Amino acid sequence: MSNIQRAFTKSHSGQPAETRCAAEWQADAALHSEFSDVEAYIAFTKAAEAGLVRGVPPRAAPAGAPTTPPVEARCKAEWRTNAALRAEFSDVETYVAFTKATEAGLARVHGTKTRRQA
After folding, report:
1. Which of 43, 44, 98, 115 is the most exposed place for a label (fewest CB within 10 A)?
2. Which backbone phi and psi does 5 adopt, to 5 degrees?
């Protein structure tokens, strides 16, 4: 269950939203990545409690869509079995970062330069 979904299902325990949200913010590091600051989380919680927002479940992959393992798992498996990768990249973390950047379109692989024969 995501943090947003939890916000919809939390018991209110009679505490003001500010007090409850501040405590949740301190206790749950995942909230920091979902909300820019504690005030944003408080505003969201108040809106959710007032019925002004609704949760949308994550979209499921279409039936028959190929599933690929997470990039970290793929890279670690490739790293273990491919000596050329181990020679090219200093460590597996560097290879994972390079793969993520390549898949996001932030890095490109260029071939080696060759001279044209006249």
Report:
1. 115
2. -65, -35
